């Protein structure tokens, strides 16, 4: 079996996934993620970005193909091993901030650290540090329901970054935000990732967001493409005939 | 028709819960019919017949409670976005839920009627050698309207209660706050006043925001900013070697962009809000001004404000503790006191309960009901207390999750738990009294049926409430699993919750039962 290249922290070859209802997810995607880079997985909605990220992160087992993480075969791991790998090495950011509503902000941020077995005091210090870095440090004692959506999303990013994961998967982290909040969130995310050497796999359908990444992988209908050529929007010709005002 | 269609295509667990409701309704209907049979058999004792009928209120209440709990967990009656789009909104879903409940209860009532007629021998001769001949008045003809009226009570009551409970209510809008009329002529309080002694109160000074974060972002963050590279964190932000944006909106005192060696500084002074604002300001593509993301602090923020001025109007009552604990304890104590006084005075009239459940003064009954009411009122607060104790003293992830969830679900779980405790303590006290006094007859079959019915209904309600809590937390659980939380940890947190509740409420129930049985046992 071919060993993955050394400089790739995450490496996938001809990934196939089909959803439970039989609808096609991704078909034959190969890619490598280098250490410390920010890789944007771009493509329109429904092109398989989330499925690809789930396969890479071991949330769902890949049905065909291989996924290697630091020369460990993710595609051959069982659910328990994958869970431990996710807990210890990976971070995940959802499109919408899914915080635990019962815990306050710093406890939410410290939760992954505590799940790894870090002591409460050290987890709290790290969580507060990251919240300060993401400009939500003054909200550390509030509950998620008292925050605005952008602040919640920043808390979710802090939660993902706090345990210093090797790879951070961000699945459209700015989808529910306005443009100003979006820029801020993305900027803090990329800054933090670069300054701490965290590899980021960023799914987005936004060209502006993808421009922040080091490299871009375009998906279309579950396949990797080099350039996306969607049929252009038809011009105004023929609209006059259909118009009601004529 | 839609209700039937939605009912038929449900999960087996949902069907099981509906079947439980039907069984409870059948038991209640049978008890009601038995009261009717007693009245038929003893036309002279109208008071005793009325007493028996009134004792049926407890199983009826338990049945209705179970029906409401089941209807709340029914996935067919949850508002769904897709259905609400074409008019099947919360109002129609409420009607569907009420219809489902009525269906289940009617099924139970019919079952009760069949069993009753069978035991009376109206259908296929007398079963069991006529053992049930006496209290079912087998030799008299059954008045059909009376029987139907009695049998219609559980479905009607249950579906009405379900409809009232699940009626669509608009949540108050987040921005609208009930206006506080403070001082004379003032519309609203402008700032929180610092009252006498509020300055030195514990915790009033601890959680203040650092002064840097309340300052407008164009000022330097601290008194001692790093002299060189004050916004070094912005260094890697240029996406792919973009040109420097023509103007820096963040701060005018930033030194000109110094091309550093590209290596990151070991310590990133990005903690302050000014640095964060500079990050946004350095955006070359979006050009979002700083004031969009971080409006400067409002000008009317005074220095004397004792704590943070809340940006949001009203905090949602997320972790609000249930307020019924003092009332519950007071009512509980009053009930116990009434019992003991009623036990002392021997002149009060004694009321014999049907089936020989207990023979005691009326005051004792009043005390028991007060005790039960107090227990039900106090249980949410006690559950909240349980959760608070569970997550106290430096909790790890497991205790934190277990305790906080218990605190949040205190009302939802505490009410049925209080009911279960009240029923259990009543059953324990009754059993104790029965053991003490040899003269009291053993429980009759109808009393046993009623007791089983009430116990089963309350326990089923508690379990259904637990299912409801789990359903409402399904999203959070999924997110935690995505985070990599081990499923065993979540399971052990749930076990910890259950154990804590058992350890707290079990001895409490026993204690109250002992106290309740004490005056009667003398």
Might you state the CATH topology name of chain A? Rossmann fold
Secondary-structure element pattern of chain A, one letter each: EEEHEEHEHHHEHEHEEH
- Number of DSSP-assigned strands of chain B: 2
Kindly name the structural category of chain B: mainly alpha
Task: Explain how this protein is built.
Chain A has helices spanning 49-57, 79-89, 105-115, 120-133, 149-161, 179-196, 207-210, 239-242; strands at residues 8-18, 24-34, 38-42, 64-69, 72-73, 90-93, 167-171, 199-204, 215-220, 223-225. With 246 residues, chain A is α/β, with parallel strands linked by helices. The longest helix of chain B is centred in the last third of the chain and has 35 residues, at 487-521. Chain B has two domains: 1-168, no CATH class; 324-522, no CATH class. In chain B, strand 1 (350-352) and strand 2 (359-361) form a beta hairpin. A two-stranded antiparallel sheet of chain B has the order 1-2. With 522 residues, chain B is mainly alpha-helical. Chain B is globular. The two termini of chain B are 60 Å apart. Chain B has helices spanning 2-8, 12-41, 46-55, 57-73, 81-85, 90-120, 133-136, 144-165, 211-214, 273-281, 290-293, 325-344, 362-390, 397-408, 410-436, 445-472, 474-483, 487-521; strands at 350-352, 359-361. At the A-B interface, helix 2, helix 3, helix 4 and helix 6 of A face helix 10, helix 14 and helix 17 of B.
């Amino acid at each position: 079996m071919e060993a993955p290249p050394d400089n790739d922290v995450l490496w996938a070859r001809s990934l196939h996934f089909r959803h439970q209802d039989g609808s096609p997810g991704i078909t034959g995607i190969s890619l490598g993620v280098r250490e410390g880079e920010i890789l944007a997985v771009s493509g329109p909605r429904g092109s398989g970005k989330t499925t690809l990220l789930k396969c890479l992160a071991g949330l769902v087992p890949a049905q065909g193909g291989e996924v290697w993480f630091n020369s460990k075969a993710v595609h051959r791991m069982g659910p328990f091993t994958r869970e431990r790998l996710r807990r210890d090495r990976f971070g995940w950011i959802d499109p919408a901030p899914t915080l635990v509503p019962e815990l306050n902000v710093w406890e939410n941020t410290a939760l992954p650290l505590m799940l790894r077995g870090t002591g409460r005091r050290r987890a709290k210090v790290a969580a507060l540090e990251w919240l300060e870095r993401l400009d939500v440090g003054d909200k550390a004692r509030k509950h998620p329901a008292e925050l605005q959506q952008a602040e919640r999303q920043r808390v979710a990013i802090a939660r993902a970054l706090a345990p210093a994961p090797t790879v951070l998967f961000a699945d459209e982290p700015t989808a529910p935000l306005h443009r100003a909040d979006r820029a801020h969130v993305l900027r803090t995310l990329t800054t933090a990732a670069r300054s701490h050497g965290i590899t980021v796999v960023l799914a987005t359908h936004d060209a502006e967001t993808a421009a922040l990444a080091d490299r871009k992988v375009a998906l279309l209908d579950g396949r990797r493409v080099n350039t996306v050529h969607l049929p252009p929007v038809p011009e105004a010709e023929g609209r006059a005939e259909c118009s009601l005002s004529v | 028709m839609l209700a039937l269609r939605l009912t038929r295509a449900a999960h087996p667990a949902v069907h099981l819960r509906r079947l439980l409701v039907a069984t409870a309704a059948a038991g209640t209907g049978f008890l009601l019919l038995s009261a009717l049979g007693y009245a038929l058999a003893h036309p002279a004792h109208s008071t005793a017949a009325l007493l028996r009928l009134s004792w049926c209120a407890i199983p009826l209440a338990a049945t209705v409670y179970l029906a409401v709990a089941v209807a709340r967990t029914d996935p067919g009656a949850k508002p769904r976005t897709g259905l609400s789009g074409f008019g099947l909104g919360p109002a129609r879903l409420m009607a569907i839920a009420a219809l489902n409940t009525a269906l289940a209860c009617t099924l139970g009532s019919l079952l009760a009627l069949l069993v009753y007629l069978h035991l009376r021998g109206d259908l296929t001769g007398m079963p069991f050698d006529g053992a049930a001949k006496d209290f079912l008045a087998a030799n008299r003809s059954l008045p059909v309207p009376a029987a139907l009226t009695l049998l219609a009570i559980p479905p009607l009551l249950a579906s009405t209660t379900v409809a009232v409970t699940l009626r669509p209510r608009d949540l108050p809008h987040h921005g609208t706050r009930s206006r506080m009329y403070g001082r004379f002529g003032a519309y609203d309080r402008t700032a929180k006043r610092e009252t006498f002694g509020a300055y030195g109160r514990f915790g009033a000074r601890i959680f203040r925001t650092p002064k840097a974060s309340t300052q407008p972002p164009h000022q330097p963050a601290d008194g001692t900013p790093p002299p060189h590279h004050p916004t070094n964190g912005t260094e890697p932000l240029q996406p792919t070697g973009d040109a420097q944006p023509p103007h820096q909106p963040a701060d005018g005192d930033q030194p000109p962009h110094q091309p550093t060696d590209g290596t990151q500084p070991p310590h990133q002074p990005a903690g302050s809000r000014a640095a964060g604002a500079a990050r946004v300001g350095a955006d070359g593509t979006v050009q979002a001004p700083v004031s969009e993301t971080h409006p400067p602090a409002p000008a009317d923020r005074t220095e004397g404000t004792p704590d943070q001025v809340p940006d949001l109007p009203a905090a949602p009552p997320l972790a609000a503790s249930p307020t019924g604990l003092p009332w519950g304890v007071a009512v509980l104590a009053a009930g116990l006191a009434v019992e003991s006084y009623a036990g002392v005075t021997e002149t009060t009239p004694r009321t014999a309960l049907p089936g020989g459940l207990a023979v005691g003064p009326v005051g004792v009954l009043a005390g028991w009901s007060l005790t039960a009411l107090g227990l039900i009122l106090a249980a949410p607060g006690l559950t909240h207390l349980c959760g608070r104790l569970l997550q106290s003293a430096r909790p790890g992830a497991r205790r934190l999750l277990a305790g906080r969830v218990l605190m949040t679900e205190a009302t939802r779980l505490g009410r049925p738990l209080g009911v279960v405790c009240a029923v259990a303590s009543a059953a324990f006290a009754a059993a104790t009294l029965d053991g003490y006094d040899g003269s009291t007859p053993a429980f009759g079959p109808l009393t046993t049926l009623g007791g089983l019915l009430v116990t089963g209904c309350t326990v089923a309600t508690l379990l259904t409430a637990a299912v409801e809590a789990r359903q409402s937390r399904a999203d959070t659980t999924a997110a935690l699993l995505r985070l990599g939380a081990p499923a065993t940890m979540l399971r052990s947190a749930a076990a910890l919750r259950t154990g804590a509740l058992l350890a707290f409420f079990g001895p409490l129930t026993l204690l109250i039962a002992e106290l309740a049985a004490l005056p009667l046992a003398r």
